[in-house]
Design a protein that fits this description.
Elements: H1 4-16, E1 38-42, E2 45-48, E3 53-56, H2 71-81, H3 92-104, E4 110-114, H4 117-132, E5 136-140, H5 158-161, H6 172-175, E6 178-181, H7 186-195, E7 200-205, H8 221-232, E8 235-239, H9 251-256, E9 262-266, E10 276-280, H10 282-285, H11 304-319, H12 322-344, E11 350-354, E12 357-361, H13 370-374, H14 378-390, E13 393-394, E14 403-404, H15 411-425
Parallel strand pairs: 3-13, 5-6, 5-7, 7-8, 8-9
Antiparallel strand pairs: 1-2, 2-3, 4-10, 9-10, 11-12, 12-14
Bound molecules: 4'-deoxy-4'-aminopyridoxal-5'-phosphate (PMP).
The site of 4'-deoxy-4'-aminopyridoxal-5'-phosphate (PMP) has 17 residues, from α4.
EC number: 5.4.3.8
Subcellular location: Cytoplasm
GO molecular function, one term: glutamate-1-semialdehyde 2,1-aminomutase activity
């Protein structure tokens, strides 16, 4: 039986880990069935505990741009590990990766490393509040910025997949400072700003949303946010945890030519190890302890293994512009192929894509915000997901997630994926 060992491992895990997983989306609850337990991964493929191989489109939710177990990254980690794994003291490699990141990303002079995307976003908002002396923030429905209390208001990703976009445990006091806006709706943002004049510290946004499917900003939206922020003395915080170093070397800031005041990173910047970071111009970063009054810290922050992996990853991305073009072409090819076979099978669908991020939605109207994303047919998605899984294609187990391509994927892998979609399309 397929998934035999995964099922057994899942049963064991559920006895000692809530839901059997350490992060909810992994549990397959939205699509049903047993989560696949990963034994190992290499390049574009993962192998599960039952020795079945899959072509991979999650890529650790973004960071494995160069594929799994990429040799330069693994070598760097192994070499570092031999010299000790954590000191809680400064090391040279932290400055090296900081210098490289600052040179790759526009509008930042300084960067602080943390251990996750959640920490990066949480710290960025604290810094924005400390710097502006204001309390409120605007976030967008369907955007996910990690599981820190203030962000769990109409959050995307697993929070919405599991029906808790507003999580119990978040106090009214915290929730009242999070103002909720509609993605891609500038008028709505304007109204909120006017209703809260002088009280808003920052607008935090996924400049290309990836946690309600992939939703690129409509023309003029980010430019409009930038102008509103300038006009009302609000900091614009780009959460580039998914998009940073993926959509371009300098992320969405570079790709779309919009500058943010604070930028958050995660996943990619650690080459797949637990890392996050936030960055800004010197004037803002100087508000952080020990230079300034805004406190932020971490025992494992700047961990040598994580820095070694991140540095190896960023060095390669920095040296090879062709990676971004190649990823873009592969994603375009996949988009075209999937659109053709779904259209031929009369399956109503929308495909959103930008760079190497793509999502397939089973609905009639274009998906431009959380409300339109939520209109997708979940029964069709479930069949689509399981059909592909059976055929050895692993996509994210929720319609509110994005597929991430790695450059390790070959055109043969993409053709196999399109063929699998063709076979599944008949059942949708
Ligand atoms: N921001 C965005 C845009 C994310 O996609 C995520 C995680 N998927 C986070 C923040 C939180 O990162 P982490 O899971 O590393 O805490």
């Amino acid at each position: 039986m397929e998934y035999k060992r995964s099922s057994a491992l899942f049963a064991e895990a559920q006895k000692v880990i809530p839901g059997g997983v350490n992060s909810p989306v992994r549990a397959f609850k939205a699509v049903g069935g047993t989560p696949i337990f990963v034994k190992e991964a290499k390049g574009a493929y993962i192998i599960d505990e039952d020795d079945k191989q899959y072509i991979e489109y999650i890529n650790s939710w973004g960071p494995m741009i160069l594929g799994h177990a990429h040799k330069p990254v693994i070598d760097a980690v192994v070499e570092k590990a031999k010299k000790g794994t954590s000191f809680g003291m400064p090391t040279e490699i932290e400055t090296k990766i900081a210098e490289l990141a600052v040179s790759m990303v526009p509008n930042i002079d300084m960067i602080r490393f943390v251990n996750s995307g959640t920490e990066a976003c949480m710290s960025a908002v604290r810094l924005a509040r400390g710097y502006t002396g204001k309390d409120k923030m605007i976030k967008f429905a369907g955007c996910y910025h990690g599981h820190s209390d203030a962000f769990l208001i109409q959050a995307g990703s697993g929070a919405v997949t599991f029906g808790s976009p507003n999580s119990p445990g978040v106090t009214q006091g915290t929730a009242k400072d999070t103002l909720l806006a509609r993605y891609n709706d500038l008028e709505n943002v304007k109204e909120i700003i006017l209703q809260n004049e002088g009280e808003i510290a920052c607008i935090i946004i996924e400049p290309v949303a990836g946690n309600m499917g992939c939703i690129p900003p409509v023309a003029g939206f980010l430019e409009g946010l930038r102008a509103l922020c300038d006009e009302h003395n609000i900091l614009l915080v780009f959460d580039e945890v998914m998009t940073g170093f993926r959509l371009a070397k300098g992320g969405v800031q570079e790709l779309l030519g919009i500058h943010a005041d604070i930028v958050c990173f995660g996943k990619v910047i650690g080459g797949g190890l637990p890392v996050g970071a936030f960055a800004a111009r010197k004037e803002i970063m100087s508000y952080l302890a020990p230079l300034g009054p805004v406190y932020q810290a971490g025992t494992l922050s700047g961990n040598p293994l994580a820095m070694a992996a991140g540095l190896a990853m960023l060095e390669e991305l920095n040296a090879k512009d062709e990676i971004f073009t190649s990823l873009q072409k592969k994603t375009e090819y996949l988009h075209k192929g999937i659109a053709e076979v779904l259209t031929a099978a009369n399956v109503t669908h929308q495909i959103n894509r930008i760079g190497s991020m793509i999502s397939v939605h089973f609905c009639e109207e274009p998906v431009i915000d959380f409300a339109s994303s939520a209109k997708g047919n979940n029964d069709s998605f479930k069949k689509f997901f399981h059909g592909l899984l059976d055929k050895g294609i692993y996509i994210a187990p929720s319609a509110f997630e994005t597929w991430f391509l790695s450059d390790a994927l070959s055109y043969e892998d993409l053709d196999k994926t399109i063929q699998a979609v063709k076979e599944v399309a008949g059942e949708l």
